[in-house]
Amino acid sequence: MLTRYLTQIGRYFLMLKEVFNRPTKWSVMKPMILKEIDDLIIGSLGIVAFISFFIGGVVAIQTALNLTNPLIPRSLIAFATRQSVILEFAPTFISVIMAGKVGSFITSSIGTMRVTEQIDALEVMGVNSLNYLVFPKLIAMMLYPFVIAMSMFLGILGGWMAGVYGGLVSNEEFISGLQTDFIPFHIAYAFIKTMIYAFLLATIPSFHGYFMKGGALEVGKASTTSFVWTSVMIILMNFILTQLLLS
Fold first, then answer.
1. Rounded CA gap, 80 and 57, in Å?
2. What Rg value do the Cα atoms of the chain yield, rounded?
3. Residues of the chain with pLDDT > 70: what percent?
């Protein structure tokens, strides 16, 4: 089994090398990149906004309900919401969700092309199929930090609305808590993680879709496998980057 995993890792890095070889003409690539931005980024804004807003509210409510000591300032509600959303929820939790939405979409779309022999047709025409299929997705996912920035904003907004309009904290206390002990590097840390997650979200599902074998049933299995491995790699990279950047 170890040999099989090492073989898969080797094929993954060979795929990455081939993605940047023999680039497709820009006139062909440009509309494909715009289509991928629409499918992968813009198409994900709705679900990200919905989840971020309400999770931010839940974090604020749960923090408030656990502040039973009257000596602890209520501004801690905003502080906990800010830290939770910026450091972990927005970059990591949303990326795991995107592994299901975006990752499954990428794997199924490329896997379907493999099943229907469209990839073989591209190779026959002399097109670098990996560059043609994966590179636009990789470029589109470079806009992924915009999604995470929106998630951060809406998560904190949801916490503010839940705290202030729920009568848990005053507006002044919440604003004060947001400004307490703010470390600008935490924003940089979140976006460094986001860029690495974006790379994983574009390449791991593409790998499982491109190298899948079988028929329509295997497309579904490949989508499930890509979601599992993308999620595992996101969690693993989260641990490594936290140790490197914050410890």
1. 12
2. 21
3. 100
